[in-house]
Amino acid sequence: MQTSLTKPLLEARDIARRFGGLLAVSDLSFEIREREVLGLIGPNGAGKSTTFNLISGFIAPTRGTLAIDGENVTGASPERISKKGLVRTFQHGSLMKSMSVADNILIGTIGAVPRAERAERVRETARLLGLHGKLADIAGTLPHGLQRLVSIAIAFAARPRILCLDEPLTGLNQTEVAATLDVFERIRDEYGSSVLLVEHNMKAVMQVCDRIVVLHHGRMLATGTPQDIRRDPRVIEAYLGAEHAH
Ligand SMILES: Nc1ncnc2c1ncn2[C@@H]1O[C@H](COP(=O)(O)OP(=O)(O)OP(=O)(O)O)[C@@H](O)[C@H]1O
Ligand SMILES: [Mg+2]
Questions:
Q1: Which residue among 47, 134, 143, 173 sits deepest, i.e. has the most Cβ atoms within 10 Å of its Cβ?
Q2: Mind listing the pLDDT tens digit for each residue in 38-60?
Q3: What residues flank ligand 1, with Cβ below 6 Å?
């Protein structure tokens, strides 16, 4: 394994976040490596979205450090963190419902792509997400699953090195889930980017992730490959239940 020689893309060291009397995240250390789909899972209230907000700069850690590409970004703004190559989607409202799909994706290219190359970037991104037949459609008129793909397209139009997605599969049907997982693999394999996936759909997580971090009460309960995680007695007890252990 060359992992000890490879600098992680993102490195969180002993991060913690307190909300009043509640320690939502504590003593948490993990990394996002190049070209991987990393799953962040755990029961409701485990601290997944808080971790997501911490690494994307939307909230600052109470303690600990964050580095991207070896550069300290602890307490940095979302803008600076996105310039370092980490981009996130929002669960609601990252899409302009009254605008076309093409214009939505175009928004994601601003600041990342020279003007002359934006139209081609929009087309290529739409192809990647299977939205090429929908470019002229008004985003708000599309089915829920396609709107979700448009949100991912906006985020990936900038070609971030780390794409962070909070529960992107919620409300999608099986066909849409399969198509979205295929997109994650293409983002990794064809573009060399990494995906951080916060998700409750365990079948999908086990299928698509290279590694998984399990949170419980704000702390890391376990980390490893899907195979390791599926069999870990602590994870089964705290989160998965016995039916996932097979
Ligand atoms: N802004 C906030 N102010 C106060 N408490 C918060 C805030 N954000 C999160 N919390 C609390 O921190 C804990 C962790 O919440 P978080 O949203 O990170 O969990 P989660 O793992 O994303 O859960 P879910 O699976 O339900 O989305 C919870 O107890 C939550 O109530
Ligand atoms: Mg959450």
A1: 47
A2: 999 999 999 999 999 999 999 99
A3: 19, 22, 24, 42, 44-50
